[in-house]
Every structure is written in structure tokens, then in C-alpha cells.
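Entry 12.
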Amino acid sequence: MKAEQRIIDDLIVLGRGCPERIRDGRVTVCTAGYSPTLGFVRIYPTRIDMPLKRWSIIKVPVERNPKDTRRESWKIQGSKSEWNILHEKMEVVGELPRKERLKLIANLVDDCVNVLNVEKRSLGIVKPIIEKYYFSQQEDYDSLTQMTLLGRRMPKVKDQYPLVPRIRYRCSRCKATYPHDQQVLEWGFYEWLRKHPENPDQVWINAKLNSPNHNIYFLVGNLFRYRTRFVIISIIRLPKSGVQLSLIPLRK
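Predicted 3D structure (C-alpha cells):
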């Protein structure tokens, strides 16, 4: 039976994970966002050179991946057979205005990661009360950078970083017995670590985790192989201001 296909034309990009290499050698990035039509959406795999920035609104033809049953998960039509021209299938059609960003995110917040787990949702947003941020050591650290057939360096992927950024936190209305302790996969963290290995702690400052002038939210998602284990895909930091909550809950 043919996989479900559709065109998403209102996907607001909220975050992209650190690049990773899949079995066939392609270096891919997980892209997550929110569609007013569909709710939360995960698109995987995507190319690292796609022009995808947070708050971009994109139009893209997608289809279901029969190997990934999470309802938020899609892949771009022809993602494997047309990998080299995949960027041509994605169109940036706009950008979410600054004045609308906090309102959108605040209206998508769930009480706790545990709620997502119970409801078998694989993506969501929580407002954290941060207890600790730190680095752990990469267990499968591989410092080798592979070369392409043309002799060019392959992009660094997540298992090639010796340090793993992690955050321990509770949600705003936490249902968990113990604090959540999750890896941060935000691509920007790893880019800083790649470019400035001598100053890893700056990533926490860049994320504005202690800023009194910002609201901090986590875009979280579960893992394909471990559906009850969540990671922080992106840290969304927005200037503090008044926000109006919708009378009608947004589709999640």
C-alpha cells in the first residue's frame, strides 16, 4: 500500500538537531516544527545545506515513513532517490513575525514531558525550571573525520564530539518523581563546540539560560528506538513580554 502523501505549506521551523550519519553514509539532520494544520511535525532526513532557520515558514511535499510510526514523523517525498536535489523540494514561503512568536510557543506548552509520554506524542514544548546544566563524556566518541570520495571533509556528526551537553530540569507543572535529565541536540550547541573547543561553557551563555529578560522553553522529542526517552531538540529563548493564551487550545 502506498504511503500517505501530502503537501505541508505552513510548517514553522522550531529547531534542527545535530547532524548524524545514517547507515548508508548520508549525513542528515532532524528538523522539527509546528504546522497550524497538522500540529507538531518532524521531518527526517533532511540535508544539512537546506535553508532552514528557526521561524522560517516552509512548504514541502512529504510522505509517511513506514518504518517510523510516530504520528508527527514525515519524510520528504523522494528523500532517498532524489537526495542530491532534495533542497529543491523545500520552499521558504515566509517567516513568523517576532510579535507572534511568544504567543505561539506559550500556547503550545504542556505541563510535563510525562504528559507527552502518556499521550504517546513524540514532540512537544515544555517550560523548564532548570536545576543544572553540564557536559557528560561521549561514550562512543569517534574523533576521526571521514573524507568523501572527492577528498572533502564530511561534516562533523554528533558522535564525533567528546562532550555531550545535558540539562537537568523540572517542568512548570512537573508530573515526574525525579527531575528530567536530557541531552541537548540543538545544532547551534555543537557548532559552537566545533568552532570553539577551548571554551565549551559559552554555549550556556549563548542559550541565555540565566537571562532575566528571556522566557526559556524546550522543544523536546523522543527517540525512534526508545519512545519513552526524550531529548531537547532546541532551546527557544524569547524576550519577556505579556502573552495572551488562546481560548481554544492549539492543535498539538
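Annotation: Residues 99-239 form one domain. The two ends are 27 Å apart (CA to CA).
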